[in-house]
Design brief:
Elements: E1 4-10, E2 17-19, E3 32-40, E4 43-51, H1 57-72, H2 80-86, E5 94-95, H3 98-113, H4 123-129, H5 131-135, H6 141-146, E6 167-172, H7 180-187, E7 196-197, E8 201-203, H8 216-229, E9 233-240, E10 243-248, E11 256-262, E12 265-275, E13 279-285, E14 289-293, E15 296-299, E16 314-321, H9 324-337, H10 339-348, E17 352-357, E18 362-364, H11 366-369, E19 372-374
Bound molecules: adenosine monophosphate and magnesium ion.
Length: 378
């Protein structure tokens, strides 16, 4: 049997965005700066918070853990999403919490307006590809035995959509790539058009299931912003994997600086976004989670039309807007759509968009040009 050489990687620097936090120490009045780094929702969390009150960073981390456990995780049987998936086929409909109802309304609309490039019913296909497991080193047992994983950095971090980079080379006895028949079988259980969303209920046909992986970190940023509103925090920049929240202002009133990773060399920044006030940034990139088999890179952003990794000519998309869930969902949708249609979709939402093409070319909406500075640019 042919043996494929499999190289699997995890991304560097928080799912496509590195925080270039050019933050001065808070010097005036009683404002104090707190920083924290940790893991929640299977990804790296970086927090810098300015407050005249107490350190809220532990509260933010606890909020993220709770959000994953209670609401978003399809893996944890007790979460709302897992219960929804388990109830697929319920003829009377599945009751939704207000929070889930709100999220699904936004995501249903992004699915429609992107002509299905974003599709949160893609879960059967996402599970089939199982790229999360490859990235986390959960290969088939034979594969794990046959090659000693070779961690390049941050080996202790095993996030589901990763930070830091680890590279392992293994000889895989059976190809991890699903067959076309498997892909089309899984695809037959997808399609957001089959859902009906009413004010309090979701009608999810039997055999279908939902995945909020493309929007969950953005939802988290929305929740963090709401939490900060209840505190004495005057400014914060918090990254949850590839989604970043800038909140309020720094003590010296200079803009927040958020870096955009170079997809060709994820240790480098392609440039920096200059952001004022409360804003949400999300990046989707083909370098975040992927597996390479026979020189072909299979990444984690799937085209719902084919069931295969999207091949739209872009390596990453960064979206800036005033909603976390939208920035996250749009970055995924725009990645699948490619530059032309993606730009249109982003603009129709009033969102700023930056696309990095496969050859490294940068395409931006006009309003993105005003806030993005390429590395080395004066
Ligand atoms: P992101 O990194 O935000 O672009 O989200 C990618 C994750 O969303 C994947 O790991 C899947 O769980 C899921 N996903 C992949 N492709 C799509 C898609 N076209 N629409 C919705 N969710 C997707
Ligand atoms: Mg996304």
């Amino acid at each position: 049997m042919k043996r494929n050489r499999v190289i699997f990687c995890k991304k560097v620097l928080c799912a496509g965005l590195a925080l270039a936090m050019l933050l001065p120490f808070a010097g005036c009045g009683r404002t104090v700066k707190f920083t924290a780094t940790g893991i929640a929702m299977g990804t790296m969390i970086n927090q810098t918070v300015y407050t005249s009150g107490e350190d809220v960073t532990p509260e933010v981390t606890a909020l993220l853990t709770q959000l994953e456990q209670d609401t978003l995780s399809w893996r944890l049987a007790e979460s709302e999403l897992a219960k929804i998936n388990a109830a697929a086929g319920t003829e009377a409909g599945i009751p939704l919490s207000a929070e889930m109802q709100q999220a699904m309304t936004v995501l249903f609309e992004v699915s429609e307006r992107s002509n299905g490039a974003f599709d949160f019913t893609l879960h059967p296909v996402v599970q089939l590809w199982n790229i999360d497991a490859w990235a986390a080193g959960e290969m088939a047992p034979e594969a794990q035995q046959s090659g000693a994983p070779e961690q390049e950095s941050a080996p202790e971090v095993q996030p589901s959509d990763g930070t830091g980079q680890s590279v392992a080379q293994v000889d895989e006895p059976t190809t991890p790539i699903p067959t076309p028949a498997q892909v089309s079988e899984a695809l037959s259980h997808t399609g957001y058009e089959a859902l009906t969303l009413t004010e309090h209920k979701l009608y999810l046909p039997a055999g279908m299931s939902l995945d909020l992986g493309a929007a969950g970190k953005g939802i988290a940023c929305d929740k963090i912003a709401a939490l900060l509103e209840e505190t004495e925090v005057s400014g914060a920049v918090i990254s949850v994997g590839g989604s970043v929240l800038t909140y309020g202002s720094k003590s010296d009133k200079t803009p927040w600086q958020v870096g955009v990773v170079d997809p060709k060399d994820t240790a480098k920044l392609l440039g920096t976004l200059s952001l004022s006030g409360t804003q949400f940034v999300s990046t989707s990139g083909d370098y975040e989670r992927y597996v390479e088999v026979d020189g072909i890179r299979y990444h984690h952003i799937l085209d719902p039309a084919t069931g295969y990794p999207a091949d739209s000519g872009v390596s990453s998309v960064t979206i800036v807007c005033d909603s976390g869930i939208l920035s996250d969902a749009l970055s995924t949708a725009c990645f699948v759509l490619g530059v032309e249609e993606g730009m249109e979709l982003a603009q129709s939402y009033g969102a700023k968009a930056l696309f990095v093409g496969e050859n490294g070319q940068i395409f931006m909406t006009e309003d993105m040009r005003e806030i993005f500075k390429e590395t080395g640019e004066k």
